[in-house]
Specification:
This is DUF3348 domain-containing protein. Helices cover about 60% and strands about 0% of the residues. The protein contains nine helices and no strands.
């Protein structure tokens, strides 16, 4: 197993804790409250729109709109599961099958025999982000439509959510787009660590100078670092999905009220 430096974990969502442990970026936790940080992200036009949504009369509740029930709850669960399965089932993040794991087991592209370019992982991560953004955005819009059909107060909440999505989406997109760049360092550190371990294992022993040891060094399987990285990147993507789904969870909680 390739060992990497484990940094002190931050509090907060799993995505933040994972990135803090996998990267070498040393950023202190913010002492600002959530409301203070949000105020810095909202422009004056966003503030006006949000004030109007909060203070104006709520929109009229439409008739004949689709109600929220068990079928809609299941539909939301399927949408979430579909996004998670797209990450877990993606071939780029699957562990390579190596020689010796079966009589006819092929070695996948990107095994220990082939050079690996991080650009492949970066591009796949960005593609997955686009899939998540589209899927979560569509789900969020459907839930807002159902929320707007319940009561005037919930219709107001739907408007507020729409305003917040418009105001923060660009900021969210910019911040999350930086994640694959942060993981590039983790990719390189894992690869270099394994290279050093393999070089140490293959170096000829100098009987006169070598220290006496009581236990043999653990064997290193070439390519283990890449499987570790794939698993880590997959975990980060799943943690990012949870962050993206937080507004959806808030809308669901409102729809579940009677």
């Amino acid at each position: 197993m390739v060992q990497v430096l484990q940094r002190t974990a931050f509090s907060g969502p799993a995505l933040i804790r994972l990135l803090a442990s996998l990267t070498d970026v040393d950023v202190p936790e913010s002492s600002q409250s959530l409301s203070d940080r949000l105020s810095q992200w909202l422009g004056w036009t966003d503030a006006i729109a949000l004030s109007s949504a909060l203070n104006n009369n709520p929109p009229a509740v439409g008739a004949g709109a689709r109600a929220f029930g068990d079928a809609e709850e299941s539909e939301c669960a399927r949408a979430r599961t579909s996004l998670a399965n797209a990450i877990v089932g993606d071939s780029v993040f699957a562990a390579a099958r190596r020689r010796g794991s079966g009589a006819h087991a092929p070695v996948q592209s990107g095994s220990d025999d082939a050079p690996v370019d991080y650009a492949v992982f970066r591009q796949r991560y960005l593609s997955m982000q686009q899939t998540m953004e589209t899927g979560v955005g569509n789900l969020r819009g459907r839930l807002r439509a159902m929320l707007a059909a319940k009561t005037p107060a919930m219709a107001r909440l739907a408007v507020v959510d729409a305003v917040m999505e418009r105001a923060l989406s660009e900021r969210e997109r910019s911040l999350l787009a930086a994640v694959p760049g942060l993981l590039a360092g983790h990719f390189q550190r894992l690869r270099e660590a394994e290279q050093h371990m393999l070089a140490d294992a293959e170096a000829p022993a100098d009987d006169a100078a070598a220290p006496v040891t009581t236990a043999a060094a653990p064997a290193v399987t070439p390519g283990t670092w890449l499987d570790t990285f794939r698993k880590d990147m997959q975990s980060v993507l799943l943690a990012e999905l949870d962050v993206r789904l937080q507004p959806v969870e808030g809308l669901l909680a409102a729809l579940r009220t009677r």
